User: What shape does this take?
Amino acid sequence: MKNLLLIGLFAIIFFNMGTNAQTKTGKKGILLITFGTSYPEARKAFENIEQKVKTHWPDVDIYWAYTSGFIRKKLAKQGIQMDSPSEALAKIGEAGYTLVAAQSLHIIPGAEFHDVVHTVKGFSLVQKGVGKTNMGRPLVSNHEDLQRMARFFTQQLPVSDDEAVVLMGHGTHHDANIYYPGFQYYLNDLSDRHYVATVEGYPSLDNVIKQLKKEHIQKVTLTPFMSVAGDHAQNDMAGEEKESWKSQLEAEGFEVDVVMKGLAEYDEVVMIWIDHLKEAFDEL
Assistant: This one.
């Protein structure tokens, strides 16, 4: 509802600017949309994505939007201004772009992704001058995506018989949480030592710990199944508090290693998002 109100507001503000935008028919732009992060060391993942996007579309302007109002407010206090998707789309329309390809940097097509889809698709209906908007799929949304990610992790983080890798996903109460246990099935096709668990969904860390004990695992490598190694990775996964995944695993007797690297820092993973953006861009 909040996004729809913002769309309506910006449509009124820029209504009279439509004729100027229409004089630049066919001008294309790219909008990259993510939850966001306030960790400076994690933002290098977004810099990597932008560099790859620029390589593929050197003559197209790139805009960014953060969906998290909390993150935007926190960054604003640091003097860093980030737009919401509605704000970014309004600026794009004002700048005269008539064709916009938006790429979600979310992992699964959950509630937040669908909110963004409604915002992006709705904007072309109310923003005068914006002729068409297309939305790229999130990281894993079909069979091929899941296969590519399973191959990537099993090759990127190989293990021996008494070792295992545990990926920390966010999880959600949305029906799309099914992608996490679904992804586990794809991992199982290639390895019985790679697991995915979630912070807020199923499977949980407790579910995975049972499997680790059953398989007599001695050493566990933790790494985020998230676009950036932000707050969840730094604190919930690898923090020193007793509730962190690292501390819980150590309390269960496992040796724990951490790979503090977001998915967007891996070029192979970024290429999946690039492929999805290409689909959206080519259909403009």
